[in-house]
Amino acid sequence: ATAIQYIPGEKVVYITDFIKKTIYIYSIDSILRANSVRPMDSIRINASVVSQPLILDKKRFVDFRWNTSATEPLPDYRSIGIYNFFDRSGKPTNYNGKFPVTFHKVLVSELSDAFAGGLSLSDDNTKLLFNYYNADMIDLSDTGGNLIKRVQGPDGFEPLVETEYIGKNEKTFSKKDARFGYTAFPRMNKNRLFVLYNGTPAEKNEYHSNRLFQFDSTLTPQIAYILNKPICAFDVDWNNRRIYGLTHLEKREILIFNFK
Questions:
Q1: In terms of pTM, does the model score above 0.90?
Q2: Higher per-residue pLDDT: 2 or 206
Q3: Which of 101, 99, 141 is closest to 116 using CA atoms?
Q4: pLDDT of residue 7
Q5: 117 beta partners
Q6: According to the 3-state scheme, what is the secondary structure of 57-76?
């Protein structure tokens, strides 16, 4: 299991097993009281690839859409969709979203690798946030996957990928000059958004960063924080104005930062 989601007010935790393509639902009370727990329910996902499913409400969930086709299904092949939507039984219902336009050519079979990123839901459950791992881009969409705004910066670069063919198999990987963009998962409440920015060469494979950016609800930049220690993931306690950062570089794996 590598994806965990907690929605305040529901008193349950959603944990995804990517191999079994299943979302397991656990009661918070049972987790707090027992040494070992069993899921109270589960959702079997009807998809060829499971990435980072996100519960939207009691009827739907969404996931990043992995395209495995090498053909262009539409004249504008970037419209193959960024998001897959499912009902709560795990059945796919529709897809939506359009990949960014780039100066360098990206093949249809490379789109999902080139534009992979971190998907999250705003605290008020009304917006989808997506920060791209291989470009310095952020998308703000409604929960139907309709793009509200896309911003790029601070450095203005796009994914640089290529595909290597070995017999009948193929592998997409970053080119020499590729860079890491935003990393981890964006966090947003009604008024502000936090994202962790990397910007380093991909060949260094440095997934920690101390550059935390704050935007307002319209994706207008506000503050660029320089943390005193780098982190690789984070979450936000909005009420107490604290950021909990995860690091693999310190013995104390969870670091706490205060913000204004």
A1: yes
A2: 206
A3: 99
A4: 81
A5: 132
A6: CCCEEEEECCCCCCCCCCCC
